[in-house]
Model the fold of this input.
Amino acid sequence: MIENTIGIRAVGSFIPKTTKKMVSPSGDHVSIRVATKHETPYKMGADSILDMVKKAEVLLEELEGQYFFFNEESYGDYLFQMHGRQIMDIVGVNRITSFNLLQGGSSSLMLVKLLMNHLIANTNVRFGIVGSPQSWEYHSQNRQLGNAILGDGAASLILEKGYQRNRILSIATKTLGKYHDVLFNEVGGWKSPIADGPCKEGKFIYKIQNLPHYKEVEESNFLILQNVMGEALQKAHLSFSDISLFAIHSPTRLHHDRFAKHFEISEEMIIDSAEEYGFMCSAGILLSIGTILENKDLKIGTKVMVSSFGVDGNWAVMIIEI
Done:
């Protein structure tokens, strides 16, 4: 049983010091963090891993031969097809099995689920990392994504097999392929090559492409999330009343308020890192988990539900026990 126990050892982060105040399309006043030209996606990702190993009290040498699952919506730095390898080169880890994904915000929890399966199946591996840097200056429409305002930064989470604190009790996920076309970069292949023309025409940016599907997802978001929550609770053999805290990362304040209202949760039970940093997509939910782990007042055995939702057609819920 202990060998199959997976715990979250720590969450590291890099948050740029530069702040920017913006007004969202829905009229919300939002404060975000903005990376400088020296704070590249790979540099931010590497710094978040260095912060992670420091908090986890793990040596960099112990990451040799382990797993690194990289997730990002915005494009990385130079050689953007090799995100994981570039970050580990900066950190100084020579050999690590890395997987690179360009997926929506809910996919970070999906990667945690996939990573757990790898750790359980591979008896030679002890650690696994899910990491995500975000940099939006050149790959968004004035940092807007629907009604959300996009912030920069990075977060990395490390799992350890056999770790008895912050145990993952269950993860449930749902993807609706119908909504694959809500968000994407309009470049690639023969149709729109990644060349000077399409880039200058504004196609090399992450934006909402299918407005009717976007509105459909917004309308059904929390009904779908409710079903995913139910599955996660069932897998963990728990009821909704067993949960003491809820970690989310809301695209907008309206999403935050709708979440609280739909599930009848009081504000003091919700941890939402978007309130401090703005919307950071797949890095954001990792930051919310990190906030939970750093709360020294939580008693051992406290049950926390981590819920990830948005408009990318992916939903995920993870339950952890402190």
